[in-house]
Amino acid sequence: MDYADYLRRVPKAELHCHFEGTVRPQTFADLARKHDVALPTDDAERLYDYDSIYEFLKIFAMVSSTLIDQEDFARASYESIEDGVKLGNLKYREMFFSPSLHTKRGIPYKTVVDGLVDGVQQAEKDFGVKCRLIADVYRQDSPAEAREMVEQVLEHRRDELIGLGMDGAEAPDPPEKFVDAYKLAKQGGLRLTSHACEDAPPQNITTCLDVLGCERIDHGYHILEDENVVQRCLDDGIYFTVCPTATAVCYFDPDDYTKHPIRGMVDKGLLVMINSDDPPMFHTDIGSEYVKMVQAAEWGPDKVREFSFNGIDGSWASDDEKRAMRQQFEQELDALDAQLER
Question: Which sequence positions are flagged as catalytic?
Fold first, then answer.
């Protein structure tokens, strides 16, 4: 097989993927018709066209507005995992969702999380892929709203929900704004992560680690501006869940992945694993993310194997699950290496 095919078929554990950002454009259109939501275009293939993070967030919110019934959430979460399996050999996922985008519209939190769980449970039966959920603080919410969201999560706790994260536009709303929400989540037994240093300084990473108690960092590209923060993350073994395409489109150069900061992060020795973020919204998938980034950086199979294992090691799966995944991944990677054209 050629290298692009190899990269698509590499077994993958994904830790940075937003449920609302995985809704297929046709499903978005179907649900909009179902609930009489007006769309900006009748062409489903053009629904996800935008040039900035702020335009993207508007569409992200519009997609969320079409998710109303429990079965809507179940359908979209099931399809999300199906796409990961078929387009990139997804084996395990920890998936974000943003509760307040739905509860502010009057959708009960229970409807949201129960629908998501219905979908991921059916997907596990059909595809053998386990998916855990991470509730995201939306940065543009107030601290009180974030705390209320965590209270709802803990009150209606599902086994599949294992963590708290944070998303939204980072620059105007720094992480220290949500100390109370993170403290409550930790007291409730949730694992902790956050988007950080995506479009803000390296100090945000330090704040997430030291003030919020985060265990890993989502994105983190501007860490390269501060060698002290780089060294601290190397010393502490912090995992970074990076997303090539979404960030290339919104912040960097979508036409030249050789210049993406992910390459510099890997060169520094940081623990990086590749993810799809909001795949259909950026016309990509988890397989394509590996193809674009790995080939642009000219990384070989050994580095790809490292990324694959980082997905396991950086996950919040149990030790037994990690051992089983590593054994499965090693077997599949050995078989793929034997078929790769040299």
Answer: 198
